[in-house]
Amino acid sequence: MRLAGYAALFGRRDAGRDTIRPGAFTRTLAQRSEPLPLFWQHRPDQRIGWIESAAEDARGLRVIARIDNPDGGAGAALRRGAVTGLSFGYRARSFTRDAAGRELTEIDLFEVSLVTHPMQHGARVHLIT
Fold first, then answer.
1. Which residues have a Cβ under 8 Å from the Cβ of 38 and sit 6 or more positions away?
2. Could you tell me the pLDDT band of residue 71, with boundaries at 50, 70 and 90?
3. Is residue 2 within 8 Å of residue 129, measured between CB atoms?
4. What's the burial of 54, exposed, middle or buried (CB within 10 Å: 0-12/13-18/19+)?
5. What is the pTM of this model?
6. 113 contacts 84 by C-beta, under 8 angstroms
7. What is the pLDDT of residue 123?
8. Which of 6, 76, 100, 113 is spaced 20 to 30 A from 120 at the CA atom?
């Protein structure tokens, strides 16, 4: 099973009060030599697949992923529409902070996760094949 969607959206404040700026993933994506893991709910002990591609576009960080076991719990939940959120594990390398929150301008990306409740409401799976 493959999925496509956005793990992050640019210019939208998330529930943690972070706003990601275009270009924030450029360095980490260029330096990545191994595929990113796809985790279930950010749990490293539950890798459910791999990110086949991750790239910035005008909207945000678009990902295409493959789920290893499409009949397993995560694949079945995705197929039913019970879980459609995407999120990512990261470290902020460069940001500014003000009363409204942080503006992230450079991010180290570690993983992408299929989640029930993404920090950024619009970060969702848009296509399943």
1. 47, 48, 49, 50, 51, 65, 66, 67, 111, 112, 113, 114
2. confident
3. yes
4. buried
5. 0.95
6. no
7. 98
8. 76
Q: Which two tokens stand for residue 90?
A: 């990261």
Rounded CA separation 79/82 (Å): 8
pLDDT in tens, 6-45: 999 999 999 999 999 999 999 999 999 999 999 999 999 9
Count other Cβ atoms within 10 Å, centred on residue 89.
Answer: 16
Strand 37-40, strand 85-98: pairing: unpaired
The model's pLDDT over 77-120, given as tens digits with 9 standing for 90+, comes to: 999 999 999 999 999 999 999 999 999 999 999 999 999 999 99
Kindly give the residue spans of alpha helices, DSSP state H, lying in the chain: 26-31, 73-80
At residue 116, φ and ψ (nearest 5 deg) are: -75, -45
Choose among 89, 108, 103, 121: nearest CA to 5.
121
Contact 115, 87 (CB under 8 A): yes
Per-residue tokens: 10: 């640019």
Tell me if 3 sits within 8 A of 56, measured CB to CB.
no
